[in-house]
């Protein structure tokens, strides 16, 4: 089992323009209400926060190719993260799924002062 940051580092060399374009096309087809506003990049943090029961037990070698996006909502546009998940297997990327708004759990930290 590789630590997630090592998986993301090894996946960076596999991020060819064709892989990025394929992910962008899949995101555009599956999530027509989202508009990508930034560049795609592999994120070890996004892979660890992927909110899906499928990946609950098997997160080793899981990487997420993500990009910032604007999502149309009830109260206007909201900034979200969209992308594709892959497993790194035998030096190749194995596509898993497209993930939209709400797929990546946001970690919130609250500081409570102690008196």
Q: How would you portray this structure in words?
A:
The chain is 24% helix and 35% strand. It is α+β, with helices and mostly antiparallel strands and 115 residues long. The longest helix is centred in the N-terminal third of the chain and has 14 residues, at 17-30. It is globular. 28% of the residues are buried.
Distance between the termini: 43 Å
Number of strands: 5
Overall average residue pLDDT? 78
Please state roughly what percent of the residues sit in beta strands, choosing from under 5%, 5-15%, 15-25%, 25-35%, 35-45% or over 45%: 25-35%
What is the C-alpha radius of gyration, as a whole number of Å?
15 Å
Low-confidence spans: 1-5
Q: Report the order of strands and helices.
A: HHEEHEEE
Number of H/I helices = 3
Which percent bin holds the helix content? Answer: 10-25%
User: For this entry, what is the oligomeric state of its chains?
Assistant: single chain
**How many strands, what sense, and barrel or not for the largest sheet?**
5 strands, antiparallel
Describe the global form. globular
Q: Report the structural category.
A: alpha+beta
């Amino acid at each position: 089992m590789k630590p997630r940051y090592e998986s993301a580092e090894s996946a960076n060399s596999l991020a060819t323009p064709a892989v990025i374009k394929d992910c962008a096309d899949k995101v555009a087809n599956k999530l027509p209400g989202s508009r990508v506003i930034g560049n795609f990049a592999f994120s070890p943090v996004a892979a660890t926060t992927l909110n899906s029961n499928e990946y609950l037990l098997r997160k080793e070698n899981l990487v997420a190719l993500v990009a910032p996006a604007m999502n149309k909502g009830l109260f206007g546009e909201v900034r979200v993260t969209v992308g594709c998940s892959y497993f790194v297997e035998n030096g190749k990327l194995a596509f898993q799924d497209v993930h939209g708004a709400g797929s990546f759990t946001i970690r919130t930290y609250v500081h409570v002062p102690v008196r």
